[in-house]
Design brief:
The complex is a heterodimer of chains A (about 110) and B (about 180). By secondary structure, chain A is mostly helical. In chain A, about 85% of the residues lie in helices and about 0% in strands. Chain A is rod-shaped, with a radius of gyration of 31 Å. Helices cover about 75% and strands about 0% of the residues of chain B. Chain B is built from nine helices and no strands. In chain B, α5 packs across α6 and α7 packs across α9. Chain B is globular and about 55 Å long. With about 180 residues, chain B is mostly helical. Classes of the chains: A mainly alpha (about 110), B mainly alpha (about 180). Chains A and B meet through α1 and α2 of A and α2, α3, α6, α7 and α9 of B.
């Protein structure tokens, strides 16, 4: 069979896409595009919260360390009050961060 | 405006320009997808997914190769990966169902009955070929891609494509003879 003949008979078998296929494709692209900035905003908010909460936590712990060092004039790690205070501050911060992440997750799921 | 300029526009955020690529390549993409899944609805889903994938990875397109080669490779890979999902459905398809499908296609709506019958015979003959050989025939003869480009699209070697093309031509000829095509 000649190439020319085969090409000619195959030309009858080319499909035509439905008229609304183009619309469906562009609609999906637009939808995905409009959703993508929300995704990045969501991740940046979570990261900002993380920095803020744990930044504050370490700042409080640093102040406590200085305060205990000056007031008891020895290694603060030997003081039970210091250890308890640090544990309290870190657990409150962790709990707060956990709640923030959960809230962000709920908001994102609603969208 | 050429394709490269349009791609630059799209990458800058002009989504509407992507419509040009959809208009230009959707019919051939449909044909390639249909050769693999042999179901019009699934072929449409494959083409839609392929276009979205192409849009999302447009920044990875290098103008060294033709846009069509790059895009048909995406269509082929999308079809191959999705066909496993449709596999059970496709296996249940009988020849009769394929014939029904053929009658619903809009490829040649205005042909006279005799020509329509001939066209159905050709489509049946293609459907009897293995999927990869049907795709090779389509790309080589309909889209006029070179052996090298077909090899790139299907991730096969050039010699492999040559062998499959030769085999597909022979099978096609035998099928058409058995249907008394052209008499």
């Amino acid at each position: 069979m000649e190439d020319k003949h085969l090409k000619e008979i195959l030309s009858h078998t080319q499909l035509m896409a439905d008229e609304n296929l183009k619309h469906r494709i562009l609609h999906q692209i637009h939808t995905e595009k409009s959703l993508s900035p929300m995704k990045s905003a969501h991740s940046s908010t979570t990261f900002d919260n993380l920095l803020f909460i744990f930044g504050l936590m370490y700042a409080i712990i640093a102040i406590l360390t200085i305060f205990f060092y000056i007031s008891i004039e020895s290694n603060p790690l030997k003081s039970t009050t210091f250890i308890t205070s640090v544990a309290f501050v870190s657990s409150i911060s962790s709990l707060y961060w956990l709640l923030t992440v959960y809230e962000e997750y709920r908001k994102h799921k609603r969208i | 405006m050429n394709e490269q300029e349009l791609i630059t526009k799209i990458l800058k955020g002009d989504t509407a320009s992507f419509g040009f690529f959809v208009d230009t390549y959707q019919d051939m993409a449909m044909t390639i997808a249909f050769r693999i899944c042999r179901n019009k609805q699934d072929a449409e889903d494959i083409v839609q997914n392929a276009f979205v994938r192409a849009y999302n990875s447009l920044n990875s397109y290098r103008s060294k190769s033709k846009f069509s080669t790059w895009f048909y490779r995406i269509v082929y890979n999308t079809a191959i990966s999705q066909i496993t999902k449709f596999q059970s459905k496709v296996e249940q398809d009988t020849l009769g169902k394929v014939e029904n499908e053929l009658s619903s296609l809009e490829s040649i709506p205005s042909l006279p009955i005799e020509q329509q019958e001939q066209s159905d015979i050709i489509t049946l003959a293609i459907d009897q070929l293995p999927k990869d050989e049907a795709v090779i025939l389509t790309l080589y003869y309909l889209e006029e891609h070179s052996i090298k480009e077909v090899a790139k699209i299907m991730s096969l070697t050039e010699s492999n494509i040559k062998v499959k093309l030769h085999r597909a031509r022979q099978k096609m000829q035998e099928s058409l003879k058995s249907y008394d095509y052209g008499r």
